[in-house]
Design a protein that fits this description.
Length: 338
């Protein structure tokens, strides 16, 4: 079987990956589409740093402990797929059903995240295993490509839910990459009436407007805080210095939701936040209910993710796609179609 794997920082295609065999409670699926996530790009470049940083975490399970960077790594967690075969004694949807799932595989070994693994296949493969209890059939005849964006849209919905934003409050989204765009779509879904988006890239600002932002701002011209007074700020950049700048400039009692994942050490002035009584919440991922809500919103047309899909490549094109996604004006979301 063919699969694209990360090998020494580059995506390469293997033709000799063993065919996955579903066990009890599992299904074999054929991958129809899989989005390339920014976290995959970051792992390809900074995998060693990421593993070292996550190894320091206490209080949460660390799924990355067993990842060996010297071996091939399977990735791909934004997928839609067609059921081919169920494992023994597994009651599930009929073969041919288009499904998606939270990226988790349950096996006798325990629970494996479908993110980075030397052993668990992800969506950058022709076929993979999924857990039958976690499958969501794709409704309303939704094609595989938009269905594959359920996962990243759930990330945005989780951030918006965590913010507790109300319709009449102003939201400022800083950074209009895929995470920021997902936040904007979720804000529009929630009925927020004043969504402001800030990004240096004119292409990303245009996409933000298409996805629901009422106002777009170029921070190179002026600070967005000079042009709006947000009740909630969504940080979707993930770079050092952004949080401190928000604390310095935002109005008093602003709620700051940090959805961008900064891998480097950062410095903030606590006095900025204390003087204004600013609330900061860090968010990550989503829960299964938010995943299901995102799929339904896409399938029912409440969120149109098609403008986000700016490219499609086969497995052989993944190395070039990773390079192209490094340029913010070139693409938002490239889908892999194994």
């Amino acid at each position: 079987m063919r699969a694209a794997v990360l090998r020494r920082g580059r995506m390469v295609v293997r033709d000799d990956v063993p065919e996955p065999v579903p066990g009890p409670g599992q299904v074999l699926v054929e991958v129809k589409a899989c989005g390339i996530c920014g976290s995959d790009l970051h792992f390809a470049t900074h995998g060693e740093e990421l593993l070292a940083t996550t190894s320091e975490l206490e209080g949460v399970p660390n799924q990355n402990d067993s990842v060996d960077l010297s071996r091939d790594i399977f990735m791909g967690h934004e997928f839609s797929a067609e059921i081919l075969q169920a494992g023994p004694d597994t009651d599930t949807h009929a073969p041919g059903t288009l499904v998606t799932s939270v990226p988790v595989l349950i096996s006798p070994r325990g629970v494996d995240m479908i993110v980075y693994s030397n052993t668990t296949l992800g969506g950058y493969a022709e076929r993979m295993l999924l857990s039958a209890p976690l499958l969501l059939p794709v409704p309303n005849g939704l094609p595989p490509e938009p269905a594959a964006l359920t996962e990243p849209m759930a990330v945005g919905l989780h951030a918006v839910n965590a913010s507790r934003i109300e319709r009449g409050e102003t939201a400022l989204v800083i950074g209009c990459g895929p995470v920021g765009i997902a936040v904007i779509a979720a804000l529009r879904l929630r009925g927020v009436e004043n969504i402001v988006a800030s990004d240096f890239s004119p292409t990303r600002r245009q996409l933000a407007a298409t996805m629901g932002a009422h106002v777009t701002i170029d921070p190179a011209q002026d600070s967005p805080f000079h042009q709006c007074a947000p009740a909630v700020v969504f940080e979707a950049v993930g770079a050092p210095g952004i949080i401190d700048d928000i604390l310095r400039r935002c109005p008093a009692k602003t709620r700051v939701v940090v959805a961008g994942v900064c891998m480097q050490p950062d410095t903030v002035h606590p006095l900025y936040g204390a003087a204004k009584q600013v609330s900061i919440q860090f968010v990550f991922g989503y829960d299964p209910a938010e995943f299901a809500v995102s799929l339904r919103a896409i399938a029912e047309g409440d969120i149109d993710v098609r403008p986000m899909i700016t490219g499609s490549v086969p497995l052989d094109g993944m190395a070039d796609a990773f390079d192209e996604l490094a340029a913010p004006d070139a693409h938002c979301k490239i889908l892999v179609t194994p």
